[in-house]
Amino acid sequence: TDQTYDYDVLVIGSGPGGYVAAIRAGQLGLKTACVESRETLGGTCLNVGCIPSKAMLHASEYFDAAANGTMAKMGVKVTPELDLDTMHAQRLDAVKQLTSGIAFLFKKNKVDWLKGRATFTGAHSVDIAGKTVTARDIVVATGSSVTPLPGVEVDNDKQIIVDSTGALELASVPEHMVVIGGGVIGLELGSVWRRLGAKVTCVEFLDEILPGFDGDVRKEARKIFKKQGIEFKLGTKVTKVTVKGNSASVTVEPGKGGAAETIAADCVLVSIGRRPNTAGLALDKAGLKTNERGQIDIDHEFRTAVDGVWAIGDVVPGPMLAHKAEDEGLAVAENIAGLTGIVNHDVIPLVVYTLPEISGVGLTEEAAAEKMKDKGGIKVGKFPMLANSRAKTNHEPEGFVKVIAEADSDRVLGVWAIASVAGTMIAEAAVAMEFGATSEDIAYTCHAHPTHAEAMKEAAMGVQGKPIHI
Ligand code: FAD
Ligand code: NAI
């Protein structure tokens, strides 16, 4: 430990980026503290993001399976009764167990948990509730929060216009929920309340949902959600929401201009993206500026423009995902310790935890075709879940797996999947791509039968033009 500073490493924010950085720094023998302004550790992900949303998604899946006839089809007849209080209680229990788990891991790895909000006073010092704390290296991992929509005032307490945090906690099932934004949050939380009985209308500004995903996947996903009962208004923007008593009136108009209409709703979810948390950090005191998108720019090693200040997670450019933040947390701690911490940003899986799940890693077919346009082009193999024995047996016929490879070298450029367990299946594709695999490598790897994963093998065989089961 350098005696001039209180700590070797101070991490600001205890989300998946920050807490992982702090634990790894502790493991590497660095004197480490992590400051968090929330009451509990774990950031957005554990408190109001990944974990509680999955608790509601999982529980509502059971309800829906009982209510929509899926269970009856398999000979299990039940009439479900919703006990929303218990559903919320098990959500809170999951959050409590996991956030206190981080506190335990901090103790185990000798990481000091400093409670309060940190504000820079210099490149090596912060103020926390009137106290100055110094560190040789400071990691900014302050995460992100909901992007506000002008003219639409979120008030989670009233439970009429809510953001994702409010939408996790609704005390009763809305009759009609309008979701603004057909992105990940809108589809996941819209699905939760749709399954529990709400009518859900999703208003999306672009002409397709899930921007950034593979074109085929976006179209197929929308068809599936539509069949499940979600109504989509694409190419449409919300211009205003007014609240009267317990109901809201949502004004929408075509994105390209045209006649406005209003939709009545008793709940409106604002999910148009998230923005980095940098306000109130006094970054200027450390000599730092944000870029035009409000993010902190970093180099390949997660160094900011100021020596000794590093940044990771949602506050830096790149996808806003917990696993990306975690990997950056590991890497930044290793770099601070003088080791070599690397994250391959070309291989970050994406998963939407609806039913079926939607996942992808690497390039979309569109991006791959563009990239290889003058370099021999691409080959694509696609296998429908309908032809996968396990999916068929489980009454999960929807979706497909798609493997995209370079035509000449056969190297895999991207993999996309819609399947009940697509989130778990995509890990295989990420490992394959990390090792520079060809589609043939996947096709000739023995996959257990009967599993959904065989669809990955068959899609890869499809790239060779020789799948067996279609
Ligand atoms: P965060 O988790 O946002 O943590 C930052 C922490 O820093 C916060 O606790 C904040 O209080 C604290 N902080 C901020 N400023 C200060 C300060 N000045 N002083 C002290 N503390 C401060 N991602 C996935 O990969 N999978 C999912 O399934 C998933 N589901 C999601 C569901 C929802 C509803 C939401 C909202 C997000 C979801 N995400 C998911 C995204 C994921 O939560 C984020 O990508 C991830 O939490 C980012 O981690 P982070 O460490 O960068 O920041
Ligand atoms: P998003 O960026 O995924 O989707 C926002 C959507 O809103 C886009 O489709 C966009 O075109 C649309 N939009 C923007 N402005 C609009 C407007 N005025 N009117 C109508 N539509 C508009 O953002 P979202 O869903 O809020 O999620 C935020 C982040 O949280 C995501 O980027 C994701 O990284 C992370 N997240 C990840 C999850 C996962 O990995 N499973 C789950 C939930 C969130």
TrEMBL record:
Binding site residues for NAD(+): G181, G182, G183, V184, I185, G186, L187, E188, E204, G273
Presence of the UniProt keyword Signal in the record: no
Reactions accelerated catalytically: N(6)-[(R)-dihydrolipoyl]-L-lysyl-[protein] + NAD(+) = N(6)-[(R)-lipoyl]-L-lysyl-[protein] + NADH + H(+)
FAD/NAD(P)-binding domain location: 7-329
GO cellular component terms given for this protein: cytoplasm; transferase complex
Needed co-factor(s): FAD
Alphabetical keyword list: Disulfide bond, FAD, Flavoprotein, NAD, Nucleotide-binding, Oxidoreductase, Redox-active center
One of the protein's GO biological processes: 2-oxoglutarate metabolic process
Keyword presence, Disulfide bond: yes
GO molecular function: dihydrolipoyl dehydrogenase (NADH) activity; flavin adenine dinucleotide binding
Entry-linked SUPFAM superfamilies: FAD/NAD(P)-binding domain, FAD/NAD-linked reductases, dimerisation (C-terminal) domain
UniProt-annotated catalytic positions: H449
Record text on cofactor binding: Binds 1 FAD per subunit.
E.C. code: 1.8.1.4
Residues that bind FAD: K54, T142, G143, S144, D314, M320, L321, A322, H323
Disulphide connectivity of cysteines: C45-C50
PANTHER family membership: DIHYDROLIPOYL DEHYDROGENASE, MITOCHONDRIAL, DISULFIDE OXIDOREDUCTASE
Note: The active site is a redox-active disulfide bond.
Family named by the database record: Belongs to the class-I pyridine nucleotide-disulfide oxidoreductase family.
Protein name: Dihydrolipoyl dehydrogenase
